[in-house]
Amino acid sequence: MFLSQPYPFYYKGKSLAVIASVLFVCSLLFLYIFEPFVVYTPEHKMNYFWISFIHSCSPLIVIAFLSLLKFARVKEENWNIQKEILLITLFLLLVGIVQFLIRDVIYNNSNNWSWKYLIEEIRHTLLIGTLFSLTFTSLNFNRLNAKNIKKADTLNLSHYSKKNAQCPIIQINTRVKSDSFELKVNNLIFAKAVGNYVELYLKGETISKVLKRITLKELVTTLAPHPNIIKTHRSYLVNLNYLKNVTGNAQGYKLQLENCEEKIPVARNIIKAFNKKIKGETDIFC
Known about the structure:
The protein has helices spanning about 15-35, 50-65, 80-100, 105, 115-155, 215-225, 270-280, and strands at about 170, 180-185, 190-195, 195-200, 210, 230-235, 235-240, 245-250, 250-255, 265. Helix 1 runs antiparallel to helix 2 (about 50-65). The protein folds into two domains: about 1-150, no CATH class; about 155-280, CATH 2.40.50.1020. The two termini are about 35 Å apart. By secondary structure, the chain is an alpha+beta fold. A hairpin with a 2-residue loop joins strand 6 and strand 7 (about 235-240). It contains seven helices and ten strands. The protein has a five-stranded antiparallel beta sheet, with helices on one face.
């Protein structure tokens, strides 16, 4: 189903700042150059450029509000087109409401605070916003999906040379001293961050899951000397010795590991380094 397809999550950090900047500039140019809606000049309290400028600030206000919803907690690997569309719809609805609330600042009209103008502002915002956002989402999805599938298909996993055949045992110190443990590096299939804890998936007669009070960042640092253990995502650490298959989607890659049902994501910003690692071009992974 198309709506359930994975889609990149852009709404935090530098990506959110870039989106806000591009949205502001595009809105300003579109409103000022094309004047898409009928304007009655005698009602204007200021030059039309400044009216366009204020209208273009509305999305920034909404973005600032939405950022308070703790986007950092969103599981990026679970983001999909349906969630993207729902978020965009909420965003456009809120922008329309803000456009209504600022009418008194820019228009001399006794009916500014009326249901008529509330509906009109929301309708205009949804009309223009939906057209642009759906077009961009569709084109961006197709571009990223095709690009990452092509890259994944060109990988030859036989080029990857497995490391640590001697199965070293190392000491892992956790935040709870009594919970520290020894780890056979080659028995680690992958690790998954869960808040301030990490779930370790270990190979034995059956695959076992162990929960330890240690951050993924701390675990990455401890396992740094072992080149087959790599971080593929902000929440995942993988032992490439168990790598079975690589597939691509709009978010990046998905890794299939031996004897594991869960597919591990490779973030878009790590794909280039991951490809080099698999091709044996470098032992450095960041």
